[in-house]
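Predict the 3D structure for this chain.
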Amino acid sequence: MASTALLPPDQAGVCPLLAPPQNVAHGIVSQAVLTAPGLRVTLFYFAAGQELSEHTTPARALVQVLAGSCDFTLHGESRHLKAGDLLHLPPKLPHAVRAVDDLTLLITQATPPSKV
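Done. Predicted structure below.
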């Protein structure tokens, strides 16, 4: 089964992070950049006004705002993020996001190795 990630996990590579997204006029589109054991990097494109409802993840995450701005809610507290901001999300922290403008996020998720 071929990976749909932009970068293969077993070799060096380069991909454009600021390329315009396809078909995001009224929705949210995600694109895997890199998937490897314990690591997942994903680009998210949001049309202005789109949102993800509150959820959690078992992974530690770094959220980089590449373009646009959003309101990010962390455990009930809202923070306004703009291009150039970096947000750290500890594992299992409830969070939600609403795009104020057209928005591009790069999310890096790190999951600790399973203990056997």
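The chain has a mean pLDDT of 91.
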